[in-house]
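If you are new to this repository, start here. Below is one unmodified record pulled from the training split, so you can see the exact layout before writing a loader.
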Amino acid sequence: MFRNIPTVTKNLLLVNILVFLAALILSQQGISLEQWGGLYYFKAEEFHVYQFVTYMFLHGGFAHLFFNMFALWMFGCVIERVWGPKRFIFYYIICGVGAGLCQEIVQFFNYGDLPVPSITIGASGAVYAILLAFGMTFPEERIFIFPLPVPIKAKWFVCIYAAIELLSAMSSSADGVAHIAHLGGMLFGFLLIRYWRKHPYSGANWGAAGNIFGNMKQRFEQHKPTGRQGSSYTSTTTRETDMEYNARKKARQDEIDKILDKIRKSGYDSLTKDEKQRLFDASHER
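And here is the target side for that same chain:
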């Protein structure tokens, strides 16, 4: 199964796990990787710029590591296969750095010149950005959330998580979790995705998926539907009834679900040319 994980996601999983094991071993020798690579408040003497990157690969315990890596594996595999490795790693790092920046800004307004003893660590900001990317790319995809007994759409999944983090950040309880960093990762992710949707062929390279999308750009524009958004017509003089429209929308969603299942089982490269085109069309619907 591990060999079917796309390259960047696989390497991120490996690096995080190896760093966690190294931190455990070094801690037995009295050496703390957190003290070196964790993100300090920028007015602290221990602060260094490189910590905006290194803090993403450190975790406070096995549970912290497990849940972050599980979400990275579950959603990162799909997003990397759709976007390609270059855009995916660019998105991951930028959102992780953005999460750290948001945490620093909030600390500045809360503490000013006062010393802040806490250290921010963890990949959660970047992982929350990946959750957002999945929800924005496949908003109608249904997923399970424990302990809910029924699946919910990805867009509501993202909204629930964002609401929980916002409420937690606004509460006065000090639970030791950097909720603002989580929200910051999602904020930077949202801004990046919005920018890429307005400028789909600029910025970071799309990688393999981008090459496919670029080659199909002209055909996509030529076959862009007219009339009701998201609708297609077999005749310029015949309009769909609401029942026909809803039935066709459901059929299209069922088709996308099958494509996503195929990606999970066999990888993005197993898709046919038509399936890749349909996936592209679905991810750019408004």
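Two things worth knowing about this chain: Residues 55 and 280 are 34 Å apart (CA to CA). Residues 205-238 have pLDDT under 50 and may be disordered.
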